[in-house]
Amino acid sequence: MARNVPKKARTTTPSTSEPAGSHKPVSNRITGAQTGNVKGIWEIGADGVNPCYIESVPAEILDIVIALVITNSTPTRSRRGLKIDRTVHPGFMSPPVDKIARHRLRSVCRTWAKIIDATLREIHFDGDRAPGPMLESNEDSETEEEIRPSALIDENGDEIISDEVRRTRVDLERIPAGVPINLTLIKPRYDADPGGVKDSGRPGAGLMRPGVLDMVNSAPKSDIASLTIIDDCDIAWVQRLLDDEGEPTDHRWQDENMTQANAIIKSFHDVYEKMCARQLQPPKLCRTRWQIRRQVALAKKEDEKAWKKLHTLRLMFSGRDSYDTTFAQLSPLKFPALRCVELHLHRYEPLHLWVLPYSQITHLTLGSDTSSFILLSILKLTRLSLESLSVRLLSDRQDWGHSGKYERTESCIDFPKLGVLRLYRKTTEENVEQFLNALKCPNLQTFDITTETYGNGSLTPAARFIKRSGCTLRELYIDTEDHCSPSDSMALETIMRDHSGALEAFHLHGGLFLFDWLDGFTAPRLTEVDFLCFGINEWNIDQLPERNPAPEAKDFALRLFRWIQDWAASKSLLDTQDFKSRHSQLAVRFCAAPDCYPGHYQYYDTNRHSLLAAVSPPRAIESIQNELLGAGMKVEVEWWVHKWDVPAYNAKRLSNEEKTDTSQ
What we know:
The structure is a single chain. The chain is an alpha/beta fold and 664 residues long. Among the domains are: 43-119, no CATH class; 500-664, no CATH class. 31% of the residues lie in helices and 18% in strands. The strands form six sheets. The chain has a 15-stranded mixed β-sheet with strand order 3-6-9-11-13-15-16-18-20-21-22-23-24-26-25. The longest helix is centred in the middle third of the chain and has 23 residues, at 258-280. The chain is globular and about 95 Å long. The protein starts with 31 loop residues before the first helix and ends with a helix.
């Protein structure tokens, strides 16, 4: 038989009956007929074969999934190199949207892109990625600097717009009409001469990046649900964006004494009452058709200016002083849904120029250099509606000239719905005391106080305020740089004794506190404990221990963990029905750092050449940590010392460990 003879082609269909012992591999590839059947039900994905099942997912679940994948997570707990400030929105400092992840999800198929555009409402613009034209010197002109017109226009006569502006505008245009939008603008203006003096009055100090205004105006105002803006140039354009009918003030405002402060508040109330009175004016009666058509046209024009869905407004301004003295009036007619306002002004930017619909706001954050008298006068308008309040006391000077105190004669301001109060202090103790002594919050559940400068004396007025309010705290956050003073230790002990029965979360960051309050601290509902103690005495690392050494972080940690052991074995807790769930949910974190003065800043230093290094905790603490972990608790321990003390610390820890093993 000859080789390589081609076989005859098969013309008959092979039999489908196979012997019992023969098995052919089954192909996983989808045939054309199967694909055609699937097309009638599901849209085919980007690979052209597999169907896209995303349409079967409910919109609520899809919204959560996309937000988890695309939205950048924000830290909620303080870690090394990170200081959590709960009075500032994280979107000011970091982009809230991962644009790369969003692009990848949109490229799966048309259905994914369509649903993402209709579901994901986070639009983020980063001004650092959109450079603007710089100033250049002109030798022929008398002025030293001028803006080059050719820098704004290319050869074809079109305006030069960066890719970041184009991409953000495309993202805005992709969202269907009527879908709420969360818009974030990071540095929409820029400085054309960054090397010049920080003065908003000079040329080029605050120029809008090319194309940004058109980008913002491409989305209807009625579709924007939240607006976040951080700008380091000036605030005039934001005032015009929100209020196109700004009302100028009579003169330059100061608040050096009570007479001027009263005049400021009187003018503020006049503008506020005039703004609210427009809402109560009845419509004019129209008798002729011309009057009716004119009224309808005016109503339509005013309706286009309204921010119907805007419920959250976050603004932060920094960098230079502003000379604009115009009231920004956000009336209830144009902002009917506004409930949450976060306003951070420059140090010398007057707060009273922002006339907001305070009577309808439920969540308010205010940060400025305003005196306590003006701040409290504005907060009175939010008394009945406010549920969450964050105040940043940034003034470094004494209020009211040389007196330093505002003598309050009226009764305390009662906030019946306020449940969260966060206080950030970068000012004197008198200002904190003035503010807290004027408040009364009977339903307060969360109290958060952060001090960055001279933290001593902050807890004493806080304890009086909490006791006067008669509230029951469930969450307590204390963050201070300094060691606790004896008066503050007594105040902390009072708070712990009065609120231990309902306390669920307790964070204490600062120097070495006295821990006598642990004796009466029962806390049956406790689920979260976070301690950061700047109390490691590095003088004792390479020296012999003293006979009566001063308490340090090690003693505090041992006392805390022994209390947790007793808490776990408490009979009062064992009698509760949900003991097991509470026991398993308890999360404990203890972090120790050097107690020297710059230790606080070194711990939060994000530079690569940090002076601190992580080491293993002392043997006694590590042993009790293992016992708690074995009991089912979540316990984290961090120990930080200076890098030059690491060898001595490890050697001393090893010697102590050997002594312990020998004794056992």
